[in-house]
Structures are given as structure tokens and as C-alpha cells.
Specification:
735 residues; 17 helices; 7-stranded antiparallel sheet; 9-stranded antiparallel sheet; binds zinc ion; 31% helix; alpha+beta
Length: 735
């Protein structure tokens, strides 16, 4: 048991500290990046002070006036607190005091928020989650003016506002407080942070260890269909979040969009714990899990710093988010040897107006920044890192993400073995993300839209195989949570030949899925090519669809097709198929199908091996979407009918550019001449990819993934021999 009897210091003691304030005050006006941050915040807060105290009776959903006003209040109050500490100007302290008293007058009179649309309805906001956000921020403002207030003021605020607020988020909402979930992390941090400011041991204990857990936990569900209580859960509270939320290398099962959100209370509360309960050594808790989570998060980005939009995620979120500014500042403060963080802070172009932000700005001024590099990586999912994972292959600005993770709870998608591909322009082969317009009132008040369940989560919305028009696990979260794919082998050690091979045998009963994706860089071309083998072994004859959700405008195909000119119909009725228009289709002969498209002035071609009778459907999202909730994105669906064992082989190449000013296209045609499956058995898959100058012969061992195993396969009278799960032989083509 940790004793919190002796606090390291007086107030402020959360993210602002007495020593930190001293440093800042001594050098104010000498560190540009920091001074810029302070004056920007000052302009915003000063303008708000002019508006007066605005504490409307809560009634609106996200996007509505009362929601947005109360949300703005907590950001402004936090900034005002820091400004009071930095400048010593009492107008900021008085402003916070007036606000807190206004809240304290209103709070005891508030019923539950009238919207009643959440599994945990808040009081100031429609969900407790937002109330917890409020307390995380406002506890910092209170901390900053603690010594400015009289004891009477403090007693009043704590009795009428803070203590009942903390009790509401915890004791009165155990279904919200006691989960292993990002909502609960916010709740734990909120209760713990106000507990530290108030020196309230009971609140601190509650935040770290949770509420006592009832024996008769039922499996109630939240708004998104996720379980409120995990089976066999025996712990709750902040430390349990650290124990259970992350895989050992820091991967967060809900994906980077949610980790970006969830990391914030982890960071804020950990910083407060670090200053006040140093014995917990929170930054090194569980082998430094919080540090690992931050670095893993930062690396789940494309060349522009945008997070991979896997699971329920809004696109465009990036390492410029305020949570990441906090993460970079806190991590540098904790580990000043990591000077690469400084160049990330330079890209962000802003710092926090606290001691950590000051330290970063000062170090940048001293020229300490070193280059920040994203890396290829494989992250295991699940508490022990053995429930599948996510793989990232990078070459320059090109980046390929392979998802073989666990379901990811209520925000997970049925996207086993799917991939997405990015380059310097952003997404090339996309993951749809979430059907949600966050904080846009016109679109369902900013909440998840019905199409999130009926389309965005479904398998057909992803770049992975769908069997018989049914999603993985029949789109059943319980089944999804019970299973996960596995990594079969990988090699990301050499940047010119990278590969990730994954398997799944639970998404469809009786079908074994095996996908092996290579990213290969040849000197003859500017960009790496992607070579994708998707193999399925099944006992029954069935229908297979492999969608490729590309971004851009279709330029040409190597095959003829019939295009619907006046009447569109959908490609199916269920599991997301009802949301895809069938625009054109083509029945294939044996050979190759090539499709070229243009996106953001770059040319891309997919070359696929096709069998006689295969169908290629050119489709578009947005069918059965009465409210224009979905993006009408294009998709190529490669269909195989009445087959048991199948192999999809596709090569994607980024090969040229278009200059809209000179109007000159460069390399508009793919360099891939032909792709050929040479052999495909249970044991081995052998294929040839012919470029302009070379034959690239890929050989994959489908059953044995040991690195010391030798293999021998005869192809056309020639023997291929290799060691380990795969080999790539290159032969120059003689004219
Ligand atoms: Zn998805």
C-alpha cells in the first residue's frame, strides 16, 4: 500500500508546480515558442473575461449551445489558472473564482441532463464522460487559485461543487466509473485530480483502486454496444486501467483515435501523481507502460502525422491534436534525453503554457532538437500482447498498415486481416473510419450515426475478404471479442523487402484466412510496390469478395465492363452490402485485370491475377443513406463464386504524377507487366511478378513459419530452395 500522507508540495501541485512556476517567471519574455503560446492564450482568455460568466442551465447535446459553452468554460478555466500562475495577475484568479461560485450555486439544483441518451447521463453534459472532462480541467484551475481563495470559499466550493461532483461520477455512476475503458480513465483521473487538490484521501483511493466490485455484475452494454463490465474483471480504478488498457508494448485495443483521446487523462493524472505520490513511480509503472503507449501512439501515423483511422475513428486527427502536444511536452519533461520529441514539438508549433511546455521551448531555443523518425513496427494487441496486433511497414513516405488485432471492444470493426495504404498525399487505399461527424450538430448531434453499425463496422467496408456476403463473426461483438487473428510471420528489418503474414480461422467457421503482404522497393521504380496474397482454404464452395477502397478517379481498366447508365441497384441487402451501389461489372477471362486511377495528381495501378469467371464490380458507397451520412467513395470488388480454396494475388503500384499547371503526366502507366500464380497448394504459394526489367519470384510456406526450416519446391522443372517462411528471388529479364 502506498502512503500519501506527505505531499511533496503545496499548491499548485497538479500540472503546474511551485518550482515550475518559478522557472517560468524568471525567464518570461526570453523563450519565443513559449511566449507565443502564453500571449495566444492570454488573448483568448482576456476576450472571454470580457464576455462575463456564462453558466447556462444544461439542455443541449454535443454541438448545441449549452454543451459547447460548458465545454469552452473548462478549457478557458484551465488556461486562466495557468495564466494566473505565470503572470500573477489576479484578474485571472478572480475570474476563475466567479466561475466556480456560479457552478457551485447551480450544481446542487441540477437534475440529470434532460437528453437521457447515454448509459451514464451526466448533469452538465449529456454524458458523464463530458462531466469528467470538465472536472479534469477545472480541478487544474482550482489548483492554480487554491491559495488565492479564502478557506471559506474553498469549503463552500468543495462542499457544494467538487465533492458532490466527484461522488456523482463515481458512487452514483459505477457503470461509468468502474470499467476498464477510456470513459472510466477520465472518471478516475477527474476524481483523483480533484482529490489531490482537496487533499481528500478517500477520493484519491477511489480513483486509484476503483469502487468495490459487486459479485453479481451483469453484462450491461453502453451506447456503442460494448460491455460495461468485463467478464472476470476483478479490478477497477486508474491502476487497473494501466494494467489492462494496453498491450505490453503500448498498443491500445480501441486504436489510435481513441488512444489519442484516452491518453490525455492518463497523462494528466500521472503527472499529478508523479508530483504528489512519488512512491508510486507512476511513469515507470508496469515497465513504463504510459511512456510506451505514447510512443506507440505517435508511431501510428502516416507521413503527415495523421492517425491510421482504424476502428471507430474520425479522419484527419493527427499528432497536432492538443492531447499530443501534452504528450510530447510531458514525455520530454520526463525524459529530456529524447531530443527527437523536440522536432515533433517544432512540427506541432506550440507548447503547453506550463513548466513542461517551457522546458520544451527552452530546449528548442538551445538547438537540442534531433530528427524524429517513424518506424516500421509490429504491435501486439491484448493485455499480454498475444491477441493479434497491428503491423506497420514503411518506406520513405509510404506506409502500409496491416490490422490483425482483437475486436477492440465496442468501437471495433469486423476487419480481420484488412490493410490500408498511405503515402505523402495521405490515404491511398483507405479504411472508412467511423460514420460519424464529430461535434457537427446537423449530423445527428455529432453522435455515431446508424450507418456506423450498418456500414462502417461491416467487413465489406474494409479491404479484406468477405465470404457469402456475411461479415466476420456474423458482425457479432461477443463472438469478435472471443477470438482474434494471429501473426504468422513477419520481416520488417530491411526497408527494401518487408512482409507481414497473418492468419485467422475464426472470422468464418470452416474457412482459414491467410494474408501475406509485401512491400518491395526496387531501384527501377520511385515507389515501393505492394504485393498482396490473400489465401482462403475452405471445405465448402462459397462466394468470396475482396474489396479495395481506393481514393481517386478511375482512369482505365484492362478489361471491358458494363456500366449502369440510368438505374443503380445495390450489390446486396445486408452486412453493409445494402450501402454500396453497383456502378459497373465485368466477368473476367483467365489472366490479369488492371485498374488505374488518379488521386491528388498521382497515378496508381492495381494489377490482379484473375481466373475465368471471376467478377470485378466497380461500386460506390452511399446507397440506402437517406440523410447523406456516408461518403460516396469508390470501391473495386473482386468476386470469386462457387469456390472452396482460393488465392487472390494483387499488386498495387504508385507510378506517376500529373502536374496540373504544366498539364504534363509523368509515368501514367504501371511498370507491372504481369502477375502470375505459379503454384498454390496447402503447403506453398509461389508467384511471379514481372516488372519492366525483372521477374520477382515470391515463395511462401503456408504451414511452417519456422526460420530454420528449409523448403524445396519444383516449378516448371526448376527447383526453388529456401530457408524460413518466405523467399523472394529476382531475375533480370534479358531482351
Ligand atoms: Zn474500420
Amino acid at each position: 500500500m502506498i502512503s500519501y500522507g506527505c505531499y511533496a508540495q503545496d499548491h499548485p501541485s497538479l500540472t503546474m508546480t511551485i518550482d515550475g512556476v518559478k522557472n517560468i517567471r524568471n525567464s518570461l519574455g526570453t523563450v519565443d515558442l513559449f511566449d507565443k503560446a502564453v500571449s495566444e492564450k492570454m488573448a483568448i482568455v482576456d476576450a472571454e473575461i470580457e464576455l462575463g460568466i456564462l453558466v447556462p442551465i444544461p439542455k443541449d447535446m454535443a454541438g448545441g449551445y449549452t454543451h459547447e459553452r460548458h465545454k469552452r468554460n473548462f478549457f478557458i478555466l484551465q488556461d486562466a489558472g495557468n495564466l494566473y500562475q505565470i503572470t500573477g495577475d489576479v484578474k485571472y484568479a478572480q475570474y476563475i473564482k466567479d466561475y466556480l461560485i456560479a457552478y457551485a450555486k447551480m450544481y446542487p439544483t441540477l437534475p440529470l441532463h434532460p437528453t437521457n441518451k447515454s448509459y451514464a447521463t451526466g448533469k452538465i453534459f449529456w454524458q458523464c464522460l463530458n462531466d469528467a472532462n470538465w472536472l479534469v480541467y477545472v480541478s487544474q484551475a482550482y489548483d492554480c487559485i487554491y491559495d488565492y481563495l479564502s478557506k471559506e470559499d474553498r469549503d463552500y466550493l468543495e462542499k457544494d461543487l467538487f465533492k458532490p461532483f466527484a461522488n456523482f461520477l463515481s458512487i452514483e455512476n459505477p457503470q461509468f466509473f468502474n470499467r476498464i475503458h477510456n470513459h472510466s480513465t477520465w472518471a478516475n483521473a477527474a476524481v483523483g485530480m480533484i482529490g489531490i487538490v482537496m487533499r481528500d484521501q478517500e477520493l484519491i483511493d477511489r480513483s486509484l483502486y476503483g469502487l468495490p466490485i459487486k459479485e453479481d455484475n451483469d453484462l450491461a452494454k453502453d451506447n456503442d454496444g460494448g460491455f460495461i463490465y468485463e467478464k472476470g474483471m476483478s479490478k477497477a480504478g486508474f491502476l487497473a486501467q494501466l494494467d489492462n488498457s494496453f498491450a505490453p508494448d503500448g498498443y491500445f485495443t480501441e486504436g489510435p483515435y481513441y488512444l489519442r483521446y484516452a491518453i490525455f487523462p492518463f497523462l494528466m493524472f500521472s503527472k499529478a501523481i508523479d508530483s504528489n505520490i512519488p512512491d508510486l513511480d507512476i511513469m515507470n509503472y508496469r515497465d513504463g507502460i504510459l511512456q510506451k503507449a505514447v510512443y506507440t501512439l505517435i508511431n501510428q501515423t502516416d507521413a503527415n502525422g495523421e492517425f491510421f483511422p482504424i476502428n471507430d475513428a474520425q479522419k484527419g486527427m493527427s499528432w497536432n491534436a492538443r492531447e499530443l502536444v501534452t504528450a510530447v511536452n510531458f514525455m520530454y519533461d520526463f525524459n529530456p534525453q529524447n531530443t527527437a520529441l523536440l522536432s515533433l514539438a517544432e512540427k506541432q508549433g506550440k507548447v503547453l503554457i506550463d513548466a513542461t511546455g517551457y522546458k520544451v521551448a527552452q530546449a528548442i531555443k538551445e538547438g537540442k532538437a534531433t530528427q524524429f523518425l517513424q518506424t516500421s513496427a509490429i504491435y501486439g494487441d491484448g493485455k499480454n500482447g498475444d491477441e493479434g496486433g497491428v503491423g506497420i511497414m514503411r518506406h520513405g513516405d509510404n506506409c502500409l498498415v496491416v490490422k490483425f488485432s482483437a475486436q477492440g471492444m465496442g468501437h471495433g470493426h469486423f476487419d480481420k486481416l484488412s490493410y490500408s495504404y498511405y503515402d505523402n498525399t495521405g490515404e491511398v487505399i483507405q479504411d472508412y473510419g467511423a460514420a460519424r461527424w464529430v461535434n457537427i450538430d446537423q449530423k445527428g448531434g455529432g453522435r455515431y450515426l446508424p450507418e456506423n453499425k450498418t456500414f462502417a463496422k461491416q467487413t465489406i467496408a474494409h479491404n479484406t475478404v468477405v465470404i457469402n456476403e456475411v461479415s466476420h463473426y456474423e458482425a457479432n461483438i461477443e463472438k469478435g471479442e472471443a477470438h482474434h487473428p494471429d501473426l504468422f510471420f513477419s520481416d520488417i528489418s530491411e526497408s527494401d523487402v518487408q512482409v507481414i503474414s497473418t492468419k485467422d480461422s475464426n472470422a468464418y467457421q470452416g474457412s482459414d484466412l491467410h494474408r501475406t503482404i509485401f512491400m518491395i522497393k526496387e531501384s527501377e521504380s520511385d515507389n515501393p510496390i505492394i504485393v498482396d496474397f490473400f489465401k482462403v482454404n475452405a471445405t465448402n464452395k462459397q462466394k468470396y469478395d475482396l474489396p479495395t477502397w481506393f481514393h481517386g478517379h478511375l482512369l482505365s481498366t484492362s478489361f471491358g465492363y458494363t456500366k449502369e447508365l440510368t438505374n443503380l441497384s445495390t450489390i446486396g441487402n445486408k452486412y453493409g452490402y445494402q450501402h454500396i451501389w453497383k456502378e459497373a461489372s465485368s466477368t473476367q477471362d483467365q489472366g490479369n485485370a488492371k485498374i488505374t486511377w488518379l488521386h491528388k495528381d498521382k497515378f496508381y495501378t492495381m494489377t490482379s491475377s484473375v481466373e475465368l469467371g471471376d467478377e470485378i464490380i466497380l461500386g460506390r458507397g452511399g446507397a440506402n443513406d437517406p440523410n447523406y451520412n456516408l461518403r460516396p467513395d469508390p470501391v473495386i470488388i473482386h468476386r470469386k463464386k462457387e469456390k472452396s480454396n482460393i488465392l487472390y494475388l494483387s499488386v498495387i503500384e504508385s507510378h506517376g504524377t500529373y502536374n496540373a499547371i504544366s498539364e504534363i503526366p509523368l509515368n501514367p502507366f504501371s511498370s507491372i507487366q504481369e502477375v502470375t500464380i505459379l503454384q498454390d497448394t496447402k503447403e506453398y504459394t509461389i508467384a511471379n511478378v514481372r516488372t519492366k526489367n525483372q521477374d520477382l519470384v515470391f515463395a511462401i510456406s503456408n504451414l511452417n513459419n519456422e526460420h530454420t526450416q528449409s523448403h524445396q519446391v519444383e516449378i516448371g522443372g526448376k527447383i526453388i530452395e529456401w530457408m524460413g517462411p518466405f523467399t523472394l528471388n529476382k531475375k533480370t529479364i534479358k531482351e
